[in-house]
Amino acid sequence: MHSPRASTQHKPRPEEDPIPTLRFGVNYTPRRGWFHSWHDFDPKHAREDLDQIAALGLDHVRVFHLWPLLQPNRTLIRTAAVDQLAQLVDLAAEAGLDVLVDGVQGHLSSFDFYPEWTRSWHHRNVFTDPEAVTAQVELMRTLARALAGRPNLLGLQLGNELNNLVEHNPVTPDEVDHYLDTLLAATREHLPRGRLATHSAYDAAWYGNDHPFTPWASARKGDVTTVHPWVFSGDCARRYGPRSPQVLHLAEYGTELAKAYAEDPARPVWVQETGAPEPHIPAADAPEFARATVRNAAGCEGLWGVTWWCSHDVDRALADYPELEYTLGLFDARGRAKPIANALAETVAEVRAGHHPPHPRDTALVLDCTPSTRSVSGPGGAYFDAWMALRTEGVRPAVVLASRADDAAHLAARGIKEVVQVP
């Protein structure tokens, strides 16, 4: 274990300084009461949780407030709730942790949190209703104004996996693009230079046929590309086995897939959520899964960082979560570090010491798909299997879109010397 204030304390940064990489952190899930703890926020409990996280040698947390508590009416943003969030960011600074704040929650761990003004008799499509979008714009502006002066603020994200909400809020890809552009622009208005404005989507954005949140939106909007490569997506762990190359290299693959869709070859990719959910990853296999995931992702050039999901297990006193949600923490519901926590801390220290450096990727496998055949790039898909076969043979393949496979300038900018077709 590391001293939280000796090893991870960050000095205040001038506004113009870029945020350093390579970063390793955790998505913060409060130990007592989960995110329901925002109803009666207790700084003492939050401080205990954050000190435990910092003691692992991690350098940042991603935090989530609840949309209904922040904005219970379309034209009301609660000052007390915003102040709670600012206090949490300050507590993280005391522990030596930087913070990314997600704004519109939205969706968390199988539960959706809609303000009442978006539901029932007042139903509004949160992506397309002009007044609903305007309300979210004002929320993001308010959070940015409130937090902009904190030197440990990494930035703001629009919300957690907002594409989980499309089932109840039908939307087209063009409408998604407009929504993201509008909220990102508003978020940036009050952020200091160098702070991030981002958005996130779950894996359907990359693997889901005709899903309205597209790979292009993820890879080209916002300041970094965020990926959430979960082992249950496409039934990956059950399909291939929890110790399989397909599972141990999944975050690496997700990083390389994201780079293929970017316009800027230097655009960083953030593995913003990855974890070891039981029973997909048995508890006995979780430490090695964490080691392999971080080491393999660290081998990707342009990696911004890795943020584990999540800090603390959901307490089984809380009902109705899918089974896997109860076991995802680095710490159990009593606050005890699990073996996976120690494995993650040790591996992060190895990477920081330079033991797992990034490797150039001069061979690229061509991805040829349309929005309606995007699933070929997901677990069980022909492209996914071909990429993993190359990786198992010792090749470190990049991903290149078919539309760019003959683009000499693009290939050169990415250091790609050989292009390989899927068998």
Compute the number of strand runs: 13
Strand order of the largest sheet: 7-6-3-2-1-10-9-8
CATH C-level category of the largest domain: Alpha Beta
CATH topology of the largest domain: TIM Barrel
How does the major sheet shape up? 8 strands, parallel
Number of domains: 2
pLDDT averaged residue by residue: 95
Determine the fraction of residues in helical runs and give it as a percent range: 25-40%
Distance between the termini: 47 Å
In percent, how much strand structure appears in the residues? 5-15%
Structural class assignment = alpha/beta
Number of helices: 15
CATH architecture of the largest domain: Alpha-Beta Barrel
How would you describe the overall organization of this protein?
Belongs to the glycosyl hydrolase 5 (cellulase A) family. Keywords: Glycosidase, Hydrolase. The longest helix has 18 residues, at 130-147. The strands form three sheets. This protein has an eight-stranded parallel sheet with strand order 7-6-3-2-1-10-9-8. The protein has helices at residues 4-7, 43-54, 67-70, 79-94, 130-147, 173-188, 204-207, 215-220, 236-240, 245-248, 250-261, 286-298, 339-352, 382-392, 408-413, and strands at 23-27, 60-64, 98-102, 107-108, 111-112, 153-157, 196-198, 225-227, 269-271, 303-309, 363-367, 398-401, 418-420. It is built from 15 helices and 13 strands. The chain is of the alpha/beta class and 423 residues long.
